[in-house]
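User: Batch of two.

Assistant: Item 1 of 2:
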Amino acid sequence: MIRLYQFEPAFGLPNASPFCMKLETYLRMSGLPFEIAPNANVMKAPKGKMPYIEDNGHAIADSTLIIEYLKKTYGDKLDAKLSSEQRAIALAMQRLMEENLYWAAVYSRWFEPDGWRLTQQAFFGKLPPPVKTIVSAVARRGMKRELHGHGMGRHTSDEIYAIGKADIGALADLLGDRPFVMGAEPTSIDAVAYAFLANLIWVPLDTPLKRYALSRPNLEAYCQRMKARYY
């Protein structure tokens, strides 16, 4: 059986990491049997990040590479009927969320004061107080370097949120009144979209990104649809 290693649930979501939630959602959508490993330790992860899986004696890291592995190993029921054009659109939207919108969300969680209080407790809250302070500070400095290296961290707060809202708007426009991102039936891009949107809309943190996402009613309706179907 596939063994999934990820962070613990937080914020009332299956996972506070959209990448972990993406993979768990994909596993649920695909119907593959899996179990969630208790007490997963990010320090033991093959690439130093969550999520990762163990399957048939092999450890595979990175949510996208894991899904590619699962498709090749167990078949691709979700995306088999997509056209080449649909696959291109799905990939473009995945990159929009994972490589751009993600960093705007990181800014809101890790560097805004209210966001940092919530994030620090969610990811480091179980550590003893002195360790929590040190480890979370180190992690925050590392995230700041990553945000700056990506380029998002070089912008002002207003610019960051404008970029993130444009991404959310593009996703809302693509979804329109369809039940799922690519149409009438769910595909693997829905695992990505649900994970990222739920981590904006349903986290108990007031941000410009959340407010804008809630201003597009089709996005929360979509999240409710995904939740009812797979959770």
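Item 2 of 2:
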Amino acid sequence: MNWSKAFRVLLFPCITLSLSLPAPAIYAAEQYKQVSRDEISRIVDGKHDNAIKQFENYLKKHPGDLESLYGLAAAYAQKKDIGKAMAYTGQAIDAGLPFGRFLAGPRDLLKPLTDRTDSAEFKNLAKKHGVELLHGPMLGCVTDSSAKFWVRTANEVPVQVSICEIKNKDSLLKATARTDKNRDFTAVIAVEGLKPDTRYWYSLMVNNVSSSTRWVFHTFPVLGAKSKFQIGFGGGAGYTPQHERMWKTIAAHNLTAFLLLGDNVYIDNPTRTAVQQYCYYRRQSRPEFRSFTAATPIYAIWDDHDFTTNDGWGGPEIRQPGRRQ
């Protein structure tokens, strides 16, 4: 049995996860992904006061909600009320929101706050937290001899991956790249020359500063070899803070790979780039998700909620299937 056949045969005995909640709780959990997303959309449209009112009302019912505090900071930044924007920034950080969220953005929404030249308050806060790596590393494209690592940084900076066999410390490999503002300050670092079916640890150096964290991953078996492995898959992962711990549960299975099958963040907004960015950034900033994707090879496809509206279609002829040539 070769590798591709093994993949198809053994895809089925994967993880099945279920969660039982009373109906009202399910409704609340399912709808949370829409609350701040829709208000961010209003901010993009210049309806700042409407968004502020909705965020404030939500906070009355849910004191300390991090996304509402973040949204209020963005709304007041757009209104050029930097004092209130900074106040909500401080509240959000004190309540547990990663400071990197304000560096990641959406940058256009937060620019009046983060790029001000007449006030050093935000820049002093940025200096205090010293965050350069915003998102990632995310592991992907793993084969029997290679792997790729995706990252996002606050600025255009050099990034380096160092890889070593767990059982052979003399096998150190390094690869470098540079994040690019034209690619939303991201980079993909490709590493070649790895051994098949081997456990490696890796670390990052970002802007010449080494990370204290080491992550572990496992290369695939050699092409054509028989092998047993576990692959997880799932979709419809709407952002709900109290359920983000599920990424830890999935990570505990030490999967060979995980397939994101669509509706990965529920954007439902094809015309506002900032809303799309916001939906990705809040998920990519979660520590549980970052730990999971740093050590598990991730492969993903898009579905309707990822790039259009519900039941939308990405092709030019929405009611006709594609023709094979």
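The chain has twelve helices and eleven strands.
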